[in-house]
Amino acid sequence: MRRLTVSLLLLPVLCVNTAAFRVGQARAPSPTSNSAGEPEFESLGVQGNVALYNLEYEKASKAFEQMTRLAADHPAGYFYLGNNLWLERLNRSRRLSSSLYSSGSFYSDTAETVDQVHEEKFKAAINKALAVAESRLKRDPKDVTSLYYKGAALGIRAAYKVTVNRSYRTAFGDANASVGIHKRVVKLDPDFTDANLSIGFYDYVVGNLPFGLRFLARLVGIKGSKASGIALLEKVAEHGKHASDDARVLLIGIYARERKYEKALAVLGYLSGKYPRNYLFGIERAAMLYRLGRTEEGARAFSELRNDDHIAADAKDVVNYQFGEALTEARNYASAVEAYKAVIDWPGSDKGLVTLAHLRAGQALDALGKRADAVKEYNWVLQHPNVYDSQAVANKYKKNAYAPIKR
User: How far is 122 from 116, CA to CA, in rounded Å?
Assistant: First the structure.
C-alpha cells in the first residue's frame, strides 16, 4: 500500500523529469515576457533538458539560469532549475535507479541527513516558479502555460519531500493539487498533449489499486484505468512535443510491471541511443535483458558498462550494484556476491550504497549456505549508519538465515 501511495505522490513529477517545454504555444506569453517567446529562450530550454537527460547537471543549470535572465517573469526557467537540483541530488546519492523504488526498503519510515544548502537552493527555485506563475495567472487565469508550470512545481515539491526528506504525509497536498491543475490545463486546451502525462500515469496507478481501495476511490470521485492510462502515455510518447521522452521513461517502468519486457527493452534501446552519456539507461537495459532470460547478452551489456572509462570514473558503484541485483534475481548468487564486493571495495562508492551492498551480499551468502560469512555482513550493517531499513533487515536475517522464495 505504501508503494502505491508514494507512486501517487511522485506521479506529477515523474511525468515532468524534463517537463513539457511549451512556452507560448497554447497561449501567447504575457506582454511583459516577450523574450519568453523568442527562439533563444526555447532553445535554452531544449539544450538544458538534453543536458539534464545526459546527467550533465552543471551544463543544464547554466542554460536554465540564462532562461531566467531572458524572461524573469516566466516560470519555466525557475522550474527547470528546481528540477535540475532535485535530480542532481538523487543522482549524487545514487537514487535514480528503479530497483531502489521497487524495493520495500525504500518505503520505510527512516529519517536521513539533508544537505541544507542544496535544499535551500531547491526551495528558492520552486518558490520563485510558483510566485511567477501566480502573478501571471492573476493577469490571465486561463494562461495554460503558467498553469502547467504551477502544477509541475507543486509536483516536484511533493516528490522532493518523498525522495529526499522522506516525508510522505506533507507531500499529499502538493501532489493532489498538481494533478488537479494539469487536468484543468487539458480541459482548457485539449491539444496540450504533453499535459496528459500526469493524467495518464495517475489513471494507471489508480487502476492498479486493489479492488476494495479502487471502489472506495470511486466513491470520492477518483477514477482510473490501467488501459486508459497506458494509452494516454503512449499517445504522449508518440505525439508529445516536448514530453515524449518523459512518457517513454514512465512506460519503461509500466511495461516492466506488466511483464511486457520486450516493449520496455525497445524503449530503453531508443533512449540509450539518444542519450549516450546517461549510463542509467544502459544499466536498466542490461537488467532488462536478465529479466528476459537473455543472461549472456545482459552480462555483456554490464561488462561494457563496467569497462567504460567515463562510467568507471564516476559511477562504478552504481553499475556493480545493479549488476549484483540482476545476478541475484537470476539466482547466480556467487557472481552477485562478487559484484556487491566490487561496490564495497571501490573507494568512490556512495556510503549508502556500500551499506546496501553489504546487506545484499549477506543475503546472497545465506542463499549459498555460507552462514558465517553472511552474519559478518549483517554485523557490518548493524555497526554503521542505517540506510532505509537496512538495520532492521540485517537484524532479521542475523537471527534467521535469509532463504530465497521458491519459484
Answer: 10
Q: What is the pLDDT of residues 167-214, one digit of tens each?
A: 777 777 787 788 889 999 999 999 998 888 878 887 887 777 666 655
Q: How many CA atoms lie within 13 A of 93 on its CB side?
A: 18
Instruction: Determine contact, residues 143/127, Cβ cutoff 8 Å.
Output: no
* Residue 339, Cβ density class (10 Å: 0-12 exposed, 13-18 middle, ≥19 buried): buried
Q: At a CB cut-off of 8 Å and minimum separation 6, what does 248 contact?
A: 237, 267, 270, 271
**Contact indicator for 364, 370 with CB cutoff of 8 Å:** no
Q: Which residue is associated with the grid cell 545493479?
A: 322
To the question of pTM greater than 0.85 for the whole model, the response is no
Task: Report how far Cα 383 is from the mean position of its chain's Cα atoms.
Answer: 30
Which residue, 14, 76, 72, 82, is CA-closest to 44? Answer: 76
Q: Which residue has the cell 498538481?
A: 178
